[in-house]
Amino acid sequence: MKKILLTGSLLIMLLGLFAQDAKKIKSYLDAKQFDKAKAEVDAAISKNPADPLALYYKSKVYAALAADSQFKAKVPDAREQAFEAFKKAVDTDKDNKVFLALAQDQYKPIFDIYTGYYDAGAAAFNSGTTSGNKADFDQALTLFKNSDMVGRYIFSKKWALSELDTQLVLTMGKAALNAGKKAETATYFKKLADANITGTVNDKTSYQLPYQWLSFYYKEAKDDTSFLKYTALGKKYFPKDDYYDAVMLDYYRDKKDYDALFKKYDEIITAYPDSVQYHFNYANEAFIYVYNSDAGTKINNKEALLKNVGAELQKVLAVKPNDINTNWLLGQYYYNSGIDIKEQANAIRGTKPEDVKKKADLNAQAKDILNKAIPYAEKALSTLEGSDKKSDKSKYKSIVNLMQRIYTSLNQADKVKIYQAKYDSAEAKFVN
Question: What is the pLDDT of residues 161-172, one digit of tens each?
């Protein structure tokens, strides 16, 4: 910023014919007698509408009016008039008198307009936060945009500020977001993300929002190119934020790109080896893909995926041995594995000795695996036995049904009856 120091006498001399008016206006401003300052400057403007110094002082007076709770209602467009007067004063300043006066004021008049808009916007934003009223956020956005307009003017004159007013642009984006203006939100957040802004000296966290929001916004808009761009940037700059991993899982799932989905899971559990939730989610999703996909879906790498299901669930149990869902899913996992092998056995129709032997071996293998399912299903069931909450009823009946199917496959009719009785009594058991 350029700085020029002037003595008061030199400035008055430079003001020339406007000196007496300027002196009065300054005294009124210092005394906060804004009505008298306005009358004085309005009179000066009426005498010479093109006088750069009169326009300059109008900008000072009207900026003060806009910032005063008493007078801003009387002149609702005071700040707009102040900015227009200031620009006109600078543009018509042939003898550098305005520039010298501005330097004497240390550029305060134009920064008062800039901060005045911002402070008014912040007040409207805070009001919206309290009221939840979108109109307040919309008003805040308009005021922030005006502040940015003044800021761009200041920057164009090379007086101060930077090419991208990061804090203001972030605040504009937040205001637009709360006002429900998605397109404008994207505009402001893209400015920050495209400039690779990740924080400021005083704010290391708020700048995560643009990357997260843009990732979500473009995913919803089905703009794959933009979605992948901002998700990658977010992951790059905020590697500890697991949002970007989660949203990529959603993306591959929606695309039904299961090879990419499970590759991403492999990356995630490598990055977060202690995350019980990710281990369980991987197992659960792989299990559903193998056994509950739509008819005709080609299951890629089925054996490898099923192996991962068992391994991931065991990792969860190592930390949470009594977890109902994990034990229940392991019970289903071993039950389905046993049934798969029984079906292989049933498919053997030959009567040759080697066919008979192979069928018997497969049936024995299936029996062993089915028996492995029992302790996990029983563990899940026993944890629910002490509950009488209606919210647990559906899960309880599903696990009981699993036990029935296991024992049916093992040809143990007596056990099937026991669990049928449990199933039938569930309605009376879960009453609260």
Answer: 999 999 999 999
